[in-house]
Amino acid sequence: MTKQRANWSPYDNNGGSCVAIAGADYCVIAADTRMSTGYNILSREYSKITKLADKCLMASSGFQADVKALQKHLAARHLIYQHQHNKQMSCPAMGQLLSNTLYYKRFFPYYSFNVLGGLDSEGKGCVYTYDAVGSYERVGYSSQGSGSTLIMPFLDNQLKSPSPLLLPAQDAVTPLSETEAVDLVKTVFASATERDIYTGDKLEIVVVNAEGIRREYMDLRKD
Amino acid sequence: MFRNQYDTDVTTWSPAGRLFQVEYAMEAVKQSSAAIGLRSKTHVVLACVNKASSELSSHQKKIFKVDDHIGVAIAGLTADGHVLSRYMRNECINYNFTYESPLPVGRLVVQLADKAQVCTQRSWKRSYGVGVLVAGLDESGAHLYYNCPSGNYFEYQAFAIGSRWQAAMTYLERRFENFMDSSREDLIKDALISVRETLQEEKLQISVCTVAVVGVGEPFHILDQETVRKLIDTFEIVREDGSPAPEPGDAAPDLGEAAPAAAAEEGAAPMDI
After folding, report:
1. How does B171-189 read in b/e, with b if 16+ C-beta sit within 10 Å?
2. Does the complex come out with an ipTM higher than 0.95?
């Protein structure tokens, strides 16, 4: 008697890759704009990056319907926070909120692989990386999504971040300048696009610094 | 005459067909400090008098942002006002989550009114002791509503609630026909003048007055003290000269009485010019 299997799945994987890199006074968040299902492309211009607060952005790959629902949920919670505290949520606060929101659905998870990027309350760059059920840590850089296996080792080689478990505590931010970080992101996505079929079309780069938020686009291979 | 026999419960009618508990709740609104609202085709302005219980304490917050396109001013039991504001904020957030568009003002006031009505028909509840002036903008234009503790609500061109509301209403009744086409600045000036009417002996100072605006292309926000101070200075000086002020028909006695007070207090000292 073989185990009965479901004839449909509530989840789908829309592919794509996300990256975030934290600097001394900036943060770079980037994601490709390809949305796919199976071997088909649904859109070449779908943004995976959303602004959650003034200095806090989230890039998510995975099942975009769950990603959209998660983004709406966090936006609503942020409004409530603003009404109660009369200010924007800081990136670390949003980081904790995202973790709790994900774990809330521990037994029917959001199929969403997130990287949170922005500036902390001191104006330093911060990046938080998550799994689908809310396990998170603050790091200097991270990647998620279908291309992450190709991207992460390269970032490790270029940016090697100290472990958060080290004592005394060491700074997680990258020594790179803002332009160098953006160039690194472009290089990394160009490489991932070569070998990952789900990554490509266009790259959306968002840079957060003291002046505000800046958006940049770069074309990637469309095959 | 028979008030005392029929006023214990909200669920007891009087022989004359009144619910005294609800009327007492409306009395709580009349006893508190004033709140005023006015609207034009494109903007709605709320202004209120902020009383502090003593010199040492902070002023009561009477104006609340409910959403980018809606704000409220309350008069009465401030705690009840907080609770209703929180309810309204939640309703706006939930509507936006489902429909990805702002909650129409008319829908919100109906929900608020029905919420108030519930308290007038339960023996274990009491009415909300707060009157709410709802200022909002939606697809059908700019709106000002007044929600009563009784559960009634009406839309207004201009309205005043709280203590000495009649003084402000007299001024508003004289001027309301012009409001629809007023500019944003004139609307705010009229609001400030109405607030001053309720103050009678006291001077109109920024410390006692709060003003908020919502309009086309302008999300609801409370004006900062500097802006309000400049506006008060402008029309105080204009009134001094008797030149085309927002109200050319203003009676002379008003001019005489407020001007020396303004001169003495405001550093601008128009008397010195």
Report:
1. bbeebbeebeebeeebbbb
2. no
Which residue in A80, A81, A82, A83 has the most chain B C-beta atoms within 10 A of its own C-beta, making it the best mutation to test that interface?
Answer: A83
In whole angstroms, what is the distance from residue B9 CA to residue B3 CA? 12
User: Cα separation of A78 and B75, whole Å?
Assistant: 28
Non-local (6+) Cβ contacts of B93 within 8 A are A76, A79, A80, B67
> Scanning every residue of chain B, which has its alpha carbon at the shortest distance from the alpha carbon of A84?
B86
Residue of B nearest to A76 (CA): B93
Report percent pLDDT > 90 for chain A: 91
Prior bond to A175 cis, omega within 30?
no
Question: Contact at 8 Å (CB) between A213 and A207?
Answer: yes
pLDDT band per the 50, 70, 90 thresholds, residue A161: low
Rounded to whole angstroms, the Cα distance separating B173 from A8 reads 67
Looking at beta carbons, which residues of chain B come within 8 Å of A83? 65, 86, 89
Q: Which of B65, B86, B97 sits opposite A76 (nearest CB)?
A: B97
Q: Which residues contact B236 (CB under 8 A, 6 or more apart)?
A: B204, B258, B259, B262, B266, B268, B270
Q: pLDDT tens digits, residue range A16-67?
A: 999 999 999 999 999 999 999 999 999 999 999 999 999 999 999 999 999 9
Nearest to B111 by CA among B129, B94, B99: B94
How much is the pTM? 0.85
Q: What is the number of other CB atoms lying within 10 angstroms of the CB of residue A223?
A: 8
Q: Rounded to 10 degrees, what is the CA torsion of A101, A22, A45, A70?
A: 0
Rounded Cα–Cα distance for residues A123 and A158 (Å): 24
Q: What pLDDT digit, counting tens, does each position of B10-44 carry?
A: 889 999 999 999 999 999 999 999 999 999 999 99
